[in-house]
Here is the input.
Amino acid sequence: MVQDSLVAALETWPEQGIPDKPGAWLMTTARRRAIDILRRDQRYREKLVLLERSDLRPEPAEADDRLRLIFTCCHPALSQEAQVALTLRAVVGFTTTEISSAFLLAEATVAQRIVRAKRKIVDAHIPYRMPEGAELAGRLDGVLSVLYLMFNEGYLSRGTQVAMRRDLADDALWLASLVARLMPDQPELLGLLALMKLNLARSAARFDGVGELVLLPDQDRALWDQAAIAQGIELLERAGAMKATGPYQVQAAIAALHSEARSWAETDWHQIVVLYDALVRMADSPVVRLNRGVAMSHFAGPEAALGEVNDLAIALSGYHLFHSIRAELLEQLGERVQAREELHRALDLCSNPAERSLLERRLKD
Here is the structure.
């Protein structure tokens, strides 16, 4: 039945497009095929009744082999950098180019990490299985990093074909939910789930009718999914009750402040800056400091923010958002010539079609 459903997919998907939930489509097709065969065979009438009454919903925690593969790739014998690179390549299907873009690293560096990680798995005879007990917790950091990067790629793709890969973002959320069922007492896991929920809650307002990117200040907040926002905040509160704050919880708290603000003008920028300060202490990186600079511009003004953003010029010279943000700050300070130079640089580095369109519109203004 599975083989028949795969053949049907190969015949119909190229013409009709890939469905939103390919797995569910395949299962439904296989089920219908099974029912058709059973109907033609009188000996299986009783089994037909049982089959038709069954909802055939699989148990995802046991059914999803990718979860086992993720935990295998995140074995502690590998460095965390190698764990994440290998998992994104082997499980999620990212190209080496996509992984290097996510890490802001050279492709050759990422390729070497993946090759070494594969060799290490073979040499160390690492088994393909789900770890148990304390082993689970020991691999959690790598798993969360993978799911976080997977979600980010889905939420705003670095590729050239589509602006958002919603299926990838939903898949990351689903896999994170499976891990949470295995490890319900991990606050950072709940924080990551909350972050995903809160970000996806704004999806309906992120693009207009023709696919153009709509920035947060201009989004129609009536389109935000209030139920998903409530779920995200509830997850965040559960994580906070465990009194072990980490970077995913802090990022979720920042997303919650945006989600709870009734308008752009009512955003609590002071509290957001405070949270970014905490994030810098927990997980300092140039990108975190860049995002803090954006928050600072709304709280203390563009001049103060520009000084901090300029300090990141060497670390983020190849990152399009650095140049885009710097252009906006320069524009606010009246430095139009420099701002346009930065926008051109951002456009050269950007591949996402919606972001490129936005940059082009800004250049025309």
Summary: The chain has a mean pLDDT of 86. The longest helix spans residues 134-155. Residues 184-195+225-259 form one domain. The chain has four domains: 2-57, 58-183, 184-195+225-259, 261-365.
